[in-house]
Amino acid sequence: MDIYRDIILDHYKHPHHFGTVLKNNAKATLYNTSCGDTITMELYIDAQSKKIVDIGFSGNGCAISMASASMLTDALIGKSIAAAKKMNTENIIKMLGTTLTPSRVKCAVLPLEVIQKAIGNTV
Amino acid sequence: MISANKIRKDFPLLSRKINGKSIVYLDSTATSLKPASVIDAVNDYYKKFTANVFRGIYTLSEEATCKYEGAREKIARFISAKKEEIVFTKNTDESLSLLSYCYLPYHVKRGDNLVTTIMEHHANFVPWQQYANTHGCKFHIWNVGMNGELDCDELKKLITSKTKLFAITAASNVLGIIPDIGKIVKIVKKANPDCFVVVDAAQAAPHYPIDVVQWGADAVAFSGHKMLGPSGIGVLWAKKNILEDMPPFLFGGDMIREVHKDKTSFNDVPHKFEAGTPYIEGAIGLGAAVDYLSKLGMKNVRKHEIAITTYALKQLQKISGIKIFGPKEAKNRGGVVAFHVAGVHPHDVAQLLNEDNICIRVGYHCAMPLHEHLGIGATCRASFYIYTTREDIDALVAGIKKVIKIFR
Q: Do B388 and B308 form a contact (C-beta atoms < 8 A)?
């Protein structure tokens, strides 16, 4: 079992879309209750097409949650908010391509929860 | 001096292997492993004398009562207390919460203040904070320095005639600080003899000799599961007159003397505080745990912990990129070391150590105010007990080096 695949460590060390989206119209923050880490997601959603034009994330966390956030921004930019809403735990684990113990699933899924909360805030 | 290698044979769990590898258990501050004698004592209740206590006129019940009360006596001796001053509870949290429900409302009034320290476990922090917040009282905190320094002059300023409660841990579950409880209680009582002093001994009772009379506190709480006993059994010690003056906490069986249509009178202490059928096998198991520790000798337990902690501090400090929190020397601290590995989140450290069955705890360790005060975020914590060997420490050091290599 190799949780820390190279791709996860790469995303952790060099996260994609880390930072803010100045022209954002959806934003949310959530805590990971087990370690107190926070993740903030800022999105710019095109009002007409309902597509995610840009995402920026900030905060701190373990390699799993940071890599998940980074990979998720790659996966969702250009997609519709309906697609983001449909994503679930299974999709995240598949995206990370690793096996996670129950306590770490929470870390992996947190970024998706933040994005879904941000989208929910706009409607 | 005790031999950890010899002791390990008494702990069945230590012979377990996961994925073909032995277990390196470094989380005794969260809960301790259990020796066979404790497991047998609990099993014997189920196999040989399952019966309710106090009410049976048959042999089985009398045996159960005798063992249950015998456990109370052993625990009393263990902390130099009187038998009738030992109340069985669920754990330290319940013991402390009992005081907040049964003592505070009758002695603390609006405008008074409650004082605790920043290094407390939530169990010895939240009850007092919540009481203060909801009853118009002030809540003051005695701070500690980065390396665990406690400034007694600051304490003297905090204790006034309006201070009705002072609560302190006898060993920090993060920094390992062991405050001089006897000295601190004297300072508090001198400043205000009416101040009720509570000691959280959850991290002390398992690790060093305790004498509640010498401490001079009014109440002391600890848990069974951190000192080789079963989970779900805890102890509240308080001076007899204090227990007698407090109203009951929970109502029901065993805690009453007489019940009439319009009134009820209550049983003597400590039974007044033990409503319903108690956790009989838990108490008996804790009695067996106390037997085990008493046989080793608590001074010897402490000596072993100083030796193993000295070794751990020395070996861990050699790793570049590691930051250790708390007192620098083992003689001033319990067998617990909280640390950071530079550039690696504590969850990732623990996850990778787990690949070699090295069990450490990460997070806030139920001491968020302390982490916030020190501004350090979540930490890794390795903790030691009578069965911890140098080999365990070596495995931890090798494991951390592996973590650093992976994240480099």
A: yes
